[in-house]
């Protein structure tokens, strides 16, 4: 565990005989840039990791309402050597625009402004979406995405429920634009 308020990476807990993750620089870098984030989960679930291996950025598309609302577009982060400062810096240009990131040929990073339990729920939500897309692809038919006018309606749902937009507060103002490859500015 790394205290997000101590950006030098003060160790709060490490199991007996274990050192904290070698990927602490990634966590610290993200927490510096996203003060709204209360918890990060970096994991290697099999389906999401499989999607990180595919050239096309399939999961960046709006397939299901809940991930659109809670996570925003899944952003693919270029491959860099694990445990490196270069991998930490690969997040620099994109960290504000989502709560879900697939690291190419590596795994996933989830940002949660609500803490550890919610970060785990978001990870499970994303893995479930990836599984659904995998099943749909196996049917051999074109996979439908949520249309832009329907994404606009999901923004209404976000406001009605009093939820924040995905990503760093105040950055994404238009989910349709975010899913069209822009940042929502």
From TrEMBL:
The terms describing its cellular component in GO are: cytosol
Q: GO biological process: what's one of them?
A: pentose catabolic process
Q: Which GO-annotated molecular functions does the record name?
A: aldehyde-lyase activity; metal ion binding
UniProt keywords, alphabetically: Lyase, Metal-binding
- List the Gene3D superfamilies: Class II aldolase/adducin N-terminal domain
Please name the InterPro entries in this protein's record: Aldolase_class_II_sugar_metab, Aldolase_II/adducin_N, Aldolase_II/adducin_N_sf
Domain Class II aldolase/adducin N-terminal intervals: 1-134
The source organism is bioreactor metagenome
The record's section on Pfam families has:
Aldolase_II (PF00596)
Q: What is this protein called?
A: Class II aldolase/adducin N-terminal domain-containing protein
Q: Which SUPFAM superfamilies match?
A: AraD/HMP-PK domain-like (SSF53639)
């Amino acid at each position: 565990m790394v205290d997000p308020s101590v950006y030098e990476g003060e160790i709060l807990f490490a199991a007996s005989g274990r050192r904290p993750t070698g990927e602490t620089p990634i966590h610290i870098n993200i927490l510096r840039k996203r003060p709204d984030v209360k918890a990060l989960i970096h994991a290697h679930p099999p389906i999401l990791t499989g999607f990180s291996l595919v050239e096309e950025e399939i999961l960046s598309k709006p397939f299901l309402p809940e991930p659109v609302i809670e996570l925003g577009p899944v952003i693919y982060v270029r491959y860099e050597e694990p445990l490196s400062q270069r991998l930490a810096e690969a997040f620099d240009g994109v960290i504000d625009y989502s709560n879900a990131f697939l690291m190419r040929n590596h795994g996933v990073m989830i940002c949660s402004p609500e803490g550890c339990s919610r970060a785990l729920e978001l990870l499970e939500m994303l893995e479930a979406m990836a599984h659904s897309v995998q099943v749909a692809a196996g049917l051999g038919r074109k996979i439908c995405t949520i249309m832009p006018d329907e994404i606009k309606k999901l923004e209404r749902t976000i406001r009605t429920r009093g939820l924040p937009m995905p990503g760093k507060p105040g950055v994404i103002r238009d989910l349709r634009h975010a899913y069209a490859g822009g940042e929502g500015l």
